[in-house]
Design goal:
This protein is α+β, with helices and mostly antiparallel strands. The chain is about 30% helix and about 25% strand.
Length: about 250
């Protein structure tokens, strides 16, 4: 009990001023159950939960078909659903697979190509052909999610490629540019122009990345099949979300 400002403790009928007496504490080492105070560092056979998890993860990883970088191309194809067998994409137009030139510019011309990577699918593209130069030229496959027209203006990146003497092919992979799905004014998900195409792809057991990679591979095969392209010198440029497709 407490009286006024003077503190008096009553414990078992003994008066005490509350001051703690001096006493010798035990050293921490005397309270340890093992030499270092930690089982993991005291016992040579001790294992932590993390070590069990790591061992299990390594065991499971070794059983995966892609462990150690094995079978990566096949696994990527399987995940994307890309056909293993490929060939030059069919192109609409004359015997060369081209329509007439849609524009003549200084040092190069632009032609329109309609690639058909699979039945019922048309991938429109612009082909930039430099004037003169070697019979076989290096080529650039140029992909921009904003569409083939985005960088096709005079003074743009595609013109720079063509004037440098390279053939450039800029396709509108499905869902992008001219290939984009028309969004109804009141359609659900209209804020994302890819929404309806992505949903329909999933219903068909496909995915947008895989279908776009398929279009891109066929565009690559189309370049390889052209007699004016040096097959050993074909590069790819993927802007924004097309960068992952390029990889």
């Amino acid at each position: 009990w407490v009286i006024g400002y003077d503190t008096i403790y009553a414990l078992q009928d003994r008066e005490d001023d509350g001051a703690e007496p001096e006493f010798e504490t035990e050293k921490p080492q005397t309270l340890w159950c093992c030499e270092t105070g930690q089982v993991a560092t005291s016992l040579p056979v001790a294992r932590s939960i993390q070590s069990f998890n790591q061992a299990l993860a390594e065991e499971l990883y070794a059983k995966r078909s892609g462990a150690g970088g094995r079978n990566i191309p096949d696994l990527v194809r399987a995940r994307l659903g890309v056909d293993i067998e490929r060939g030059a994409a069919e192109a609409a137009g004359n015997a060369a697979g081209l329509s007439s030139a849609i524009e003549e510019r200084e040092g190069y011309r632009i032609e329109r190509v309609e690639l058909r990577p699979e039945p019922g699918i048309v991938v429109p593209a612009l082909l930039f052909l430099p004037a003169g130069g070697a019979a076989r030229k290096s080529a650039v496959l140029y992909v921009n999610p904003a569409g083939k027209e985005a960088d096709a203006a005079e003074g743009g990146p595609l013109e720079a490629i063509a004037r440098a003497g390279h053939i450039a092919l800029a396709p509108d992979l499905r869902g992008w540019g001219e290939s984009a799905y028309p969004i109804a004014r009141r359609s659900y998900g209209k804020s994302n122009p890819n929404y309806q195409t992505v949903m329909r792809a999933l219903l068909a057991g496909k995915n947008m990345v895989g279908m776009r990679v398929g279009d891109l591979l066929h565009a690559f095969d189309y370049l390889i099949a052209r007699p004016d392209v040096d097959q050993a010198r074909i590069a790819i440029v993927g802007k924004d979300n097309a960068a992952s497709l390029g990889l």
